[in-house]
């Protein structure tokens, strides 16, 4: 622009000046245009008014009478989308070498499939979803899959409600990926309560049907986009929010943390929970050879003394949480595995595979296919404490005891009050006397007189009635203490069985 | 004031038609969307997914470019309703045809298209190695897919998934002679087993009723194959795999048995297995390892009924119809010696450990490509 004035003005410029006489559309303003005739204009306006009026009337009519609205199918956009298969995508292409799983999956946007088999799990869902929401791994990279089977409670409804709420989060970063609920009943006969779940006889069958449920869930939910698969029980009470990253960092094919559970103080405060993560021992291998084809070795029962080193027992609360330990059997409370492990066919055997089933068989099979299977002895998550029948009985007794004690105390108080009440006039007298005596004493003291003892004497009758009732609770208290020891011994055997994940 | 003047000039009827169309369009837009004819996106088996994040055995609706990304919906799959019956067409049961594709043969694709089973109930899955040959195969395959899956094509399949294999193929040279060398067999079949499992477990999804394993070199079979095999209501069923060739002795076209992996176990084989090391495998069809098993390939008798069924202990993967629940229970193709068996033969063994039996149809023939 600055250089423009320096240039000699070409004659063309003048031509441009001529153009200024035209309007924007290059129509000459001076051209003649006939005016429209008034009659035509009026008719036009009438039609316009008619159209506008009728459309307003129709609009109002349809607004107030929705049943008269024309049935036009599924919305206006449907004409673009649902014309049978217009925008249907039928071909998908995936390169499996992109989903191998690496140590820093969250940076490479690796997808995780989180699997949780559920059965009568309604009471735990709230806790589970709180854990889910707190996970630090990018939520949009986590696909959730649940298998709900043979549930008698409202697990399914509650689960659906929770998932809908999860996905309705206004922050898109807090929403999860694919959410699927598989509904499949296997007709399991074994009860899911703690006692029947852990009886030795029921174990083999129970583990096999648990394995079946896990396989159904996985085979229905695994996609070619998954780099990792995370199995998590819903009844985990405490786990680090960074657990996915923490386990992933180790870059192992299969990895499990240590699983403990808190206990009430009278049971010792805490206890190893998941005994299915172990290293193979020669004793166990020899034992396996003696068993028949369909036998399943279950860890933690006196019937099979395997002498295996358990991940759970190696825990040191102050140990390095990154320490790794090679294991052969894995527990199912919290397993992170590369998806390629499952893709290559490793699964939870619902039959006796090398004398093991379910998660222990899974560990065995992964080892058979030369995958790395690792446990972290000092990285601990905490399983929910569900009291066993014995515990409940004991707790009931403790509760009774407590109540008895309280009642006793109340009675004592009442009695005291009564006594106070009954003896009030006298005690008043005593108070007076006491005051007098006190005065006297002080006088005496002042006069350097001795023996203030006499003044205490009137108090004695008050204390006497207390002594008798105090003896009784003592006797009662001794009994449960003895019993507690017995129970604890029983637990020593009975509690070894690992609490099974609620399916 | 040029605008009212130009408006009044347009007295031609097109203006009114346009105005009317606008009004009608307006009504459509406002009133139809509130109607209750809205179809929920979470439909059941054989349906359509509403999000990319969905089982690959289902087609999905593409989201518009201008639409904000929708949160993936909560989808229920009622797997109690996934049936496997004698009349799969009547019950709208979905079939997943899985093929580990080494080479693409036009005859293979043409035979697939000829299947009379409703194509909207058929999903296809391919796994292709990352080799030069694999690249060629995928190019040819995609060309055919583009033709078949075009909008409005009558033979269009419900969905097609193509996977590129992550594991290296142990043998670059997949020539016929090299492939069948005994020492190469274990590594080759282990890799094959992994490929099959990868394909199976990522495409099975929650809605599939049947899985039909079909090798890429199977080029001829009756178009009613799926219905025919399903009618036997067997957990696992294999037809007899033959090959057409020019018989020089007879000077005419002839057929000969091809797949020797369908067999009934023998006491000799069991004895051999018992003496073997943990990692050794038994192979069929090799002179240096006589197992004396009864091979289904040798049971073919044209005089007999086509529906003759025999119980098998080992199966081949050439053509194999499997109820999806067998795979879901965990029966897969072991890539390691499982009872001294590997891949498809190990699969039959694992299925039998899970109480699913395998059957063969010695007189029902399918044909392998002749190289």
UniProtKB/TrEMBL annotation, chain A:
Question: Where, by residue number, does the polypeptide cross the bilayer?
Answer: 46-65
Where is this protein localized, as stated in its record?
Answer: Golgi apparatus membrane
* Keyword Transferase attributed: yes
Gene Ontology biological-process annotations:
cell wall mannoprotein biosynthetic process; protein N-linked glycosylation
Which UniProt keywords are listed? Answer: Golgi apparatus, Membrane, Signal-anchor, Transferase, Transmembrane, Transmembrane helix
Annotated membrane topology is:
Single-pass type II membrane protein
Does Nucleotide-binding appear among the keywords? no
Q: Where is this region: Disordered?
A: 419-503
One cellular component term from this protein's GO annotations in UniProt: mannan polymerase complex
Which GO molecular function annotations are given, in alphabetical order?
alpha-1,6-mannosyltransferase activity
* Database matches in SUPFAM superfamilies: Nucleotide-diphospho-sugar transferases (SSF53448)
Write down the superkingdom of origin.
Answer: Eukaryota
Which InterPro entries is this protein grouped with?
A: Mannan_Polymerase_Subunit (IPR052086), Nucleotide-diphossugar_trans (IPR029044)
Q: Which family does it belong to?
A: Belongs to the ANP1/MMN9/VAN1 family.
Q: What is this protein called?
A: Glycosyltransferase family 62 protein
Q: What is the taxonomic lineage of the source species?
A: Eukaryota, Fungi, Dikarya, Ascomycota, Pezizomycotina
Automatic annotation (TrEMBL), chain B:
| UniProt keyword Transmembrane, yes or no | yes
Phylogenetic placement of the source organism = Eukaryota, Fungi, Dikarya, Ascomycota, Pezizomycotina
Q: Where in the cell is it found?
A: Golgi apparatus membrane
Q: Name one GO biological process term.
A: protein N-linked glycosylation
Q: Where is the composition biased (Polar residues)?
A: 42-54
What organism does this protein naturally occur in?
Amniculicola lignicola CBS 123094
Topology class, membrane: Single-pass type II membrane protein
This chain belongs to the protein called: Glycosyltransferase family 62 protein
Q: Where is this region: Disordered?
A: 42-65
Question: Taking the first listed entry, what is the main subcellular location of this protein, grouped into a coarse class?
Answer: Golgi
Could you list this entry's UniProt keywords, alphabetically sorted.
Answer: Golgi apparatus, Membrane, Signal-anchor, Transferase, Transmembrane, Transmembrane helix
Q: Which Pfam families match?
A: Anp1
């Amino acid at each position: 622009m600055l250089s423009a004035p320096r240039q000699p003005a070409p004659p063309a410029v003048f031509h441009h000046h001529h153009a200024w006489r035209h309007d924007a559309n290059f129509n000459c303003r001076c051209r003649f245009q006939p005016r429209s005739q008034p009659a035509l204009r009026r008719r036009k306006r009438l039609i316009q008014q008619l159209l506008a009026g009728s459309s307003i009337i129709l609009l109002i009519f349809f607004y107030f009478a929705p049943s008269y609205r024309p049935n036009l199918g599924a919305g206006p956009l449907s004409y673009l989308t649902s014309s049978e298969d217009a925008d249907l995508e039928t071909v998908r292409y995936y390169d499996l070498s992109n989903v191998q799983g690496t140590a820093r999956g969250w940076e490479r946007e690796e997808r995780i499939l989180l699997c949780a088999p559920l059965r009568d799990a309604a009471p735990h869902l709230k806790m589970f979803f709180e854990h889910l929401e707190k996970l630090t791994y990018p939520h949009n990279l986590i696909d959730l899959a649940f298998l709900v089977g043979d549930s008698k409670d409202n697990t399914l409804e509650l689960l659906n409600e929770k998932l809908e709420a999860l996905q309705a989060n206004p922050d898109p970063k807090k929403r999860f990926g694919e959410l699927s609920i598989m509904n499949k009943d296997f007709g399991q006969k074994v009860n899911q309560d703690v006692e029947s779940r852990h009886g030795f006889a029921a174990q083999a069958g129970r583990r096999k049907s648990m394995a079946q449920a896990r396989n159904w869930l996985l085979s229905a939910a695994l996609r070619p986009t998954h780099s990792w698969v995370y199995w998590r029980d819903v009844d985990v009470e405490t786990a680090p929010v960074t657990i996915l990253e923490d386990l992933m960092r180790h870059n192992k094919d299969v990895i499990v943390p240590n699983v403990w559970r808190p206990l009430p103080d009278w049971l010792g405060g805490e206890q190893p929970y998941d005994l299915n993560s172990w290293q193979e021992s020669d004793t166990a291998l020899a034992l396996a050879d003696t068993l028949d084809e369909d036998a399943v070795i279950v860890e933690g029962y006196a019937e099979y003394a395997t002498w295996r080193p358990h991940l759970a027992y190696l825990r040191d609360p102050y140990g390095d949480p990154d320490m790794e330990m090679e294991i052969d059997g894995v527990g199912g409370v919290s397993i992170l595995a590369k998806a390629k492990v499952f893709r290559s066919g490793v699964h939870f055997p619902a039959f006796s595979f090398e004398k093991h089933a379910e998660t222990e068989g899974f560990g065995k099979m992964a080892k058979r296919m030369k995958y790395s299977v690792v446990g972290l002895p000092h990285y601990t998550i905490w399983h929910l404490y569900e009291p066993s029948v014995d515990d409940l009985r004991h707790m009931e007794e403790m509760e009774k005891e407590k109540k008895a004690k309280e009642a006793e105390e109340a009675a004592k108080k009442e009695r005291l009050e009564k006594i106070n009440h009954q003896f009030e006039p006298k005690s008043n007298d005593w108070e007076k006397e006491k005051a007098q005596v006190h005065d006297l004493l002080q006088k005496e003291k002042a006069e350097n007189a001795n023996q203030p003892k006499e003044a205490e004497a009137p108090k004695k009758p008050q204390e006497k009635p207390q002594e008798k009732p105090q003896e009784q609770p003592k006797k009662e208290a001794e009994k449960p203490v003895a019993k507690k020891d017995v129970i604890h011994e029983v637990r020593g055997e009975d509690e070894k069985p690992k609490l099974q994940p609620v399916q | 004031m040029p605008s009212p003047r130009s408006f009044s000039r347009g007295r031609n009827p097109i203006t009114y038609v346009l105005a009317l169309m606008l009004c009608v369009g307006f009504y459509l837009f406002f009133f139809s969307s509130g109607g209750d004819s809205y179809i929920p996106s979470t439909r059941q088996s054989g349906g359509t997914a509403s999000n990319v994040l969905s089982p690959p055995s289902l087609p999905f609706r593409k989201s518009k470019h201008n639409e904000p990304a929708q949160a993936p919906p909560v989808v229920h799959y009622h797997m109690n309703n996934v049936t496997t019956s004698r009349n799969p067409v009547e019950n709208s049961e979905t079939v997943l045809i899985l093929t580990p594709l080494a080479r693409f043969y036009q005859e293979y694709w043409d035979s697939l298209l000829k299947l009379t089973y409703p194509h909207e109930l058929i999903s296809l899955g391919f796994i292709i190695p990352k080799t030069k040959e694999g690249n060629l195969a995928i190019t040819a395959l995609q060309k055919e897919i583009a033709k078949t899956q075009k909008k409005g094509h009558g033979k269009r399949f419900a969905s097609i998934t193509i996977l590129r294999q992550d594991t290296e193929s142990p043998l670059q040279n997949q020539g016929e002679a090299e492939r069948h060398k005994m020492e190469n067999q274990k590594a080759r079949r282990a890799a094959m087993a992994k490929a099959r499992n990868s394909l199976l477990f990522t495409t099975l999804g929650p809605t599939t009723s049947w899985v039909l394993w079909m090798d890429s070199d199977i080029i001829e079979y009756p178009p009613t194959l799926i219905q025919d095999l399903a009618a036997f209501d067997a957990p696992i069923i294999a037809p007899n795999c033959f090959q057409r060739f020019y018989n020089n002795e007879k000077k005419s076209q002839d057929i000969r048995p091809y797949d020797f992996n369908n067999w009934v176990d023998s006491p000799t084989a069991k004895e051999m297995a018992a003496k073997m090391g943990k990692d050794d495998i038994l192979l069929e069809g090799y002179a240096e390892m006589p197992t004396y098993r009864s091979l289904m390939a040798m049971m073919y008798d044209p005089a007999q009924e086509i529906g003759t069924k025999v119980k098998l202990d080992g199966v081949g993967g050439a053509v194999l119809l499997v109820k999806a629940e067998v795979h879901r229970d965990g029966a897969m193709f072991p890539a390691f010696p499982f009872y001294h068996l590997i891949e498809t033969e190990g699969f039959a063994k694992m299925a039998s450990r899970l109480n699913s039996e395998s059957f063969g149809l010695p007189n029902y023939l399918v044909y392998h490509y002749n190289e």
